[in-house]
């Protein structure tokens, strides 16, 4: 099949994320190594997206390749009902060790959205076990937690398209997005509405759910660690659980292993995904405290009502172990700090462009917020023509490269962003 035939069939039969059938440019990719994607026509692109936060070690890493091969020699998959295996148990132990102390029970799922569903179901079932019916969640606007129905119900109502799915979505409580930016202090007034909702409705609220520090796909904003700390305190005062969704931020992206560490906050339930396997396979995890697992296990029905077919897939678990090992053995903090510095200097010229509203950088995340949404039909090929892979959405052009990227490649990425925004906004 030549690239033209491939694209023709793709347009005819294949959906892409957030796309109409056959709309928008897509590029056939035939390989990837380290920080470069190879297109079918032989062109190489420097990857600025890490495949949506995931590929922190780059592509075709020998250690990760080997983790798959080794596990293939044992078994690719086996059901998790009534069976267990070393990759799952070792990974659970490792995740418990790395995450904040009270988290010690791990539920494996196959995608981030499902990890969020599981977190929400756990919170509801926890209160059910204690004889309370708490069926709702409190969150902030501009959030993103996934595309399944439970997750969608706590996404930003506008970008999460609540009107379109109105009849099917659970109704949740929404406070304004966190106003103080990262590094700023949080005043009482910043939490007034949040606190008001909590005071009025805490008996109906199973949990608060937030993305700590970085609001990802809902707007790429970085907010105050102080805000997060105060939310934790409010949850404690009103006896409401706290779910932190670290699916995007986990495994070093913000400069801490987990973003909640910026505020020294520990959640009752934690969702992990995306970079968990270094971007090789789909795997996610929901961690909970013993208080939650005890309540659920010791009261009728006595079982947690969830069990995905591919739960704890051994290939994915072995990969996650290898990826975490690689990360911890590397100088990831120095790499992320270096990337932050290069993104700051490299993207700074964007501040002088008339189409740009704000430039912000945290850890290995660089964001250029524009005044108007980009035209993807134009801007996507413009990036490819410059030899980089950058995929903007709405008014946001952003970079979150693999941690292994060197400064030359990162500067090329930044220059492409500056030039493309200059020419196309
Ligand atoms: C990507 C993401 C999800 C959803 O994960 P999927 O694997 O796409 O289902 C949930 N929460 C956050 C914060 C995310 O960034």
TrEMBL record:
Keywords: Aminotransferase, Biotin biosynthesis, Cytoplasm, Pyridoxal phosphate, S-adenosyl-L-methionine, Transferase. The modification N6-(pyridoxal phosphate)lysine is found at residue 274. Its EC number is 2.6.1.62. InterPro entries: Aminotrans_3, Aminotrans_3_PPA_site, BioA, PyrdxlP-dep_Trfase, PyrdxlP-dep_Trfase_major, PyrdxlP-dep_Trfase_small. The record marks 18 as: Participates in the substrate recognition with KAPA and in a stacking interaction with the adenine ring of SAM. It catalyses: (8S)-8-amino-7-oxononanoate + S-adenosyl-L-methionine = S-adenosyl-4-methylsulfanyl-2-oxobutanoate + (7R,8S)-7,8-diammoniononanoate. The keyword ATP-binding does not apply. Its main location: cytoplasm. It is an enzyme of class 2 (transferase). PROSITE patterns: AA_TRANSFER_CLASS_3. GO terms for biological process: biotin biosynthetic process. Its cofactor is pyridoxal 5'-phosphate. The keyword Lipid biosynthesis does not apply. Transmembrane segments: none annotated. SUPFAM superfamilies: PLP-dependent transferases (SSF53383). One of its GO terms (cellular component) is cytoplasm. Catalyzes the transfer of the alpha-amino group from S-adenosyl-L-methionine (SAM) to 7-keto-8-aminopelargonic acid (KAPA) to form 7,8-diaminopelargonic acid (DAPA). It is the only aminotransferase known to utilize SAM as an amino donor. HAMAP family: BioA (MF_00834). Belongs to the class-III pyridoxal-phosphate-dependent aminotransferase family. BioA subfamily. Homodimer. This is Adenosylmethionine-8-amino-7-oxononanoate aminotransferase. It comes from Thiolapillus brandeum.
């Amino acid at each position: 099949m030549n690239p033209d035939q491939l694209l023709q069939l793709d347009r005819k039969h294949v959906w892409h994320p957030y796309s109409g059938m056959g709309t928008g440019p897509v590029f056939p990719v035939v390989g990837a190594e380290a920080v470069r994607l190879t297109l079918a026509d032989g062109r190489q692109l420097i990857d600025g997206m890490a495949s949506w936060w995931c590929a922190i070690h780059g592509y075709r890493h020998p250690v990760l390749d080997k983790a798959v091969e080794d596990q293939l020699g044992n078994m690719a998959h086996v059901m998790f009902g009534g069976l267990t295996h070393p990759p799952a148990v070792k990974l659970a132990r490792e995740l418990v060790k790395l995450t904040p102390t009270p988290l010690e029970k791990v539920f494996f799922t196959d995608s981030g959205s499902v990890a969020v569903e599981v977190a929400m179901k756990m919170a509801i079932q926890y209160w059910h076990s204690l004889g309370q019916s708490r069926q709702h969640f409190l969150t902030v606007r501009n959030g993103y937690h996934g595309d399944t129905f439970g997750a969608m119900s706590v996404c930003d109502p506008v970008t999460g398209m609540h009107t379109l799915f109105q009849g099917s979505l659970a109704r949740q409580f929404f406070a304004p997005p966190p106003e103080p930016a990262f590094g700023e202090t949080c005043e009482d007034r910043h939490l007034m509405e949040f606190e008001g909702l909590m005071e009025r409705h805490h008996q109906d609220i199973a949990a608060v759910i937030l993305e700590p520090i970085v609001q990802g796909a809902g707007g790429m904003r970085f907010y105050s660690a102080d805000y997060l700390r105060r939310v934790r305190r409010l949850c404690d005062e009103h006896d409401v659980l706290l779910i932190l969704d670290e699916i995007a931020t986990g495994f070093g992206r913000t400069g801490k292993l987990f973003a909640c560490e910026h505020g020294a906050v520990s959640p009752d339930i934690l969702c992990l995904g995306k970079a968990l396997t270094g971007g090789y396979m789909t795997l996610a995890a929901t961690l909970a405290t013993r208080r939650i697992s005890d309540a659920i296990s010791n009261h009728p029905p006595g079982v947690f009502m969830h069990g995905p077919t591919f739960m704890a897939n051994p290939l994915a678990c072995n990969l996650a172990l290898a990826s975490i090992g690689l990360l911890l053995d590397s100088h990831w903090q120095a790499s992320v700090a270096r990337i932050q510095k290069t993104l700051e200097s490299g993207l700074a010229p964007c501040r002088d462009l008339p189409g740009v509203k704000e430039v912000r950088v945290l850890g290995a995340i660089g964001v250029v917020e524009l005044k108007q949404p980009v035209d993807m039909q134009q801007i996507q090929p413009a990036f490819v023509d410059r030899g980089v892979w950058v995929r903007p959405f709405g008014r946001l052009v952003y970079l979150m490269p693999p941690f292994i990227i060197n400064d030359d490649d990162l500067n090329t990425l930044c220059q492409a962003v500056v030039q493309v925004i200059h020419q196309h906004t």
